[in-house]
Amino acid sequence: MKALILKRYGDKQVDFADVQKPTIKPDELLVQVHAVGLNPIDNMIPKGTFRPILKFHLPATLGSDLAGVVVEVGSQVTRFKPGDPVFASIFDLGTGSLAEFATVPESVAAIKPANLDFVQAASIPMVGLTSWQALKERMRLKPGQKIFIPAGSGGVGSFAIQLAKFLGAHVGTTTSTDNIDWVKNLGADEVIDYKQQEFEKVLRGYDAVLGTVRGDAIEKSLHILNPESCIVSLVGPPDATFARVRGMNFLMKLMFSLLSFKITRQVNKRNADYSFLFVHPDGQQLAEIGNLLEAGHIVPVIDKVFSFDQTKEALAYLEKGRAKGKVVVKMI
Fold it and tell me: Is the omega angle on the peptide bond into residue 237 within 30 degrees of 0, that is, cis?
């Protein structure tokens, strides 16, 4: 079968290859992939950014999100059968989705929402699970609370804004001039044009921040927070708790503790809480997200669709950082 392979870490080490069709374990599904949602981490992995962290053995197939049809199930699978349309994230599981077929553990798969096509469904898993785990699990966001979600027109931002509004929160965000009305239509209540204003000088009284922008944005966000507030960062720095949960050795725990020392100290001074979130696949959570999609509470936001043969061009487009919503590769 055809797959997009990372041969070794470094520039220009990603290419198409003919590889053996995967065989499934007793608890897995074999899925014919119809579409794959791309994520920024798909460009970061080949550079070796997450080499100490991810379960990745080269050469390896790239890609995490997928939507497709089950063609075979393992002997222990009980919730799915051949012919079922499914969607899933297989991030950090040692396999990839940018291929004609992919193996998917039963525990991370969910039935595709009936009102979505495969391209729309493939755009959801990572941004949906990231938003769900940040807002519902870490922050425990409540109706009436105020949450700041910068980069509202991005993949995570466009989903997280919708989820926060469903949960009854007041949402602040940043975007460029051309996208102000667009993010307001997603549900944002306060929109800062980052080309014209500095958000930390305008926003006040927030209870939670979702860190989606690298640089000093997280430190600046401390100025807009109430006491006993919460920052959940998707961009780092990783903290010692993350290293402990991942089962890393003492040196890695120490390194991440040092990396997060400055922000942790600043957050503690404000009687707030900081944590780094590394999304994990979860089929039950994805099924609940699917229910929200079927009910129309959240809608997929897709910027551009590429063919499988154009995947490298799709990754290059995504890396420019200008996509409004998700970039998706249509396999079939």
Answer: yes
